[in-house]
Amino acid sequence: MIRKPRFSFWAGVCFALVFVTSGNAAERRPNVLFILTDDQRPDTIHALGNDVIRTPNLDKLVHRGVSFTRAVCANPICTPSRGEILTGCSGFRSGVVDFGGKLDPELVCWPQAMRDSGYRTYYVGKWHNDGRPTTHGFERTNGMFTGGGGKWWQEKVDWKGMPVTGYRGWIFQDDEGNLFPERGLGLTPDISSKFADAAIELIKTRDERPFFLQLCFTAPHDPLLLPENEEFHYKAEDMPVPTNFLPEHPFDHGNLMGRDEVLLPFPRTPEMVQKLLAVYYAVITDLDHQVGRVMSALELTGQLENTIVVFTSDHGLGVGSHGIRGKQNMYEHTVGVPLLLAGPDVPVGQIRNTQVYLRDLYPTVCELTNVSVPPTVDGKSFKQALGKSDFVVHPHVFCYYRDSQRMIRTDRWKLIHYPLIDRWQLFDVVNDPHEKHDLYGQVEHRSTVQELQKLLVKRRQAVGDVPTSSK
């Protein structure tokens, strides 16, 4: 349920004054602010039904625009998911289906298409693909954060005293490759504020051209570190254990002992997951505060009403659901992502259950900004879904992870295959949204399974993935 926002009278007056003095926004091409987080579950926004988490600034975006509740990443790990966003193509086409892959240079990346159409293209934050942002269409970076500082790395621990295994040696740097170890190595409790500072600096840059700004936060990826502001903290005892909590996943899904999974001891306990959620939510609330600062910069510079804002994450996370700590799975809490759009020509306060991929953002934003979509793009624009709740973009979505997981999801059914162990799962995601009841093997669902298996084979063939038997 969307909660009604509270606006003060004077806030409205101040906004009106800023807007009037900024000129006629309708006569200018819209800016684009694309905010991408890391490891954020789709159920972590207060206005969309999470009564525990505090996300006042994301709530404002919910009320200002359209929220997509069935958006998915296709491949739930960072590099390939971000590759799909950049190219508008599946990983099988982009060339990146796992860590370390290089994007096909023949593909026109999203920022390049925007730049070719007259946009100034800026990049802030985490970079986790090959090359640098400036080799894929961005003309300038600020506050870029990526690998290269290993020689300064010193061992660190996370919120519970366990050795840090993520973002080891990552460092702030500029377009020329200059490194800034004085700003911290790896994640720091205040890193989200540093990304926000860099984005605000670019937003204040004067230029006649509209901007396309991609702002990539590392939050709430591990290592989780409590924010310095105690107002963002939560009490573990107040955290509800996920409805689909399990002490352990019932079988090897292909990443049972991966890096993400060993961050939490086995078997998981409710108390353990509560403590984890308290820190996870704190990092998201701090992130939300930084998003608010960036939105305030847009307002103070008179650009808010003429800026399309997109907020999403590269994938979700387990955090105890189904006995899973990390990503690398096909459940809704992980392949699902939060997705909010607000700005010019976007309806206000609407919710859509339309099935869309992250790679669809590229052609959608191009259509909203009157930018030509390159023929190399596979994604489909969902602009019409902004205004039509019954508009179908994809009758089904296909997701994958390495050679161990394949999934097909229609408007009601989800079929998951684990090729390495030849195991299947069937979920009715409408009547069982938390995927607690595996219906595979039940006689009454045999025809549904057979239809979905055939559809899965066709989708794998269509993208060049070697299909498994449908039997």
Q: What's a quick, concise take on this entry?
A:
26% of the residues lie in helices and 16% in strands.
Explain this structure to me?
It contains 11 helices and 15 strands. It is of the alpha/beta class and 471 residues long. The chain has one domain (29-391): Alkaline Phosphatase, subunit A (3-Layer(aba) Sandwich), CATH 3.40.720.10. The protein is globular, with a radius of gyration of 21 Å. α6 packs parallel to α7 (270-300). The strands form 3 sheets. It has a 9-stranded mixed beta sheet, sandwiched between helices. Strands 12-13-14-15 form a 4-stranded antiparallel beta sheet, covered by helices on one side. Strands 3-11 form a two-stranded parallel ribbon. Helices cover 26% and strands 16% of the residues.
Largest sheet entry: 9 strands, mixed
General form: globular
What is the CATH third-level topology name? Alkaline Phosphatase, subunit A
CATH superfamily: Alkaline Phosphatase, subunit A
Question: What is the element layout, followed by pairings?
Answer:
Blueprint: H1 9-21, E1 31-37, H2 56-64, E2 65-68, E3 71-72, H3 78-87, H4 91-94, H5 110-116, E4 120-126, E5 140-146, E6 171-173, H6 191-203, E7 211-216, H7 270-300, E8 307-313, H8 332-335, E9 339-342, E10 350-352, E11 356-357, H9 361-368, H10 383-387, E12 397-401, E13 405-409, E14 413-418, E15 423-428, H11 446-463
Parallel strand pairs: 1-7, 1-8, 2-10, 3-11, 4-5, 4-7
Antiparallel strand pairs: 2-9, 5-6, 8-9, 12-13, 13-14, 14-15
Helix pairs in contact: 6-7
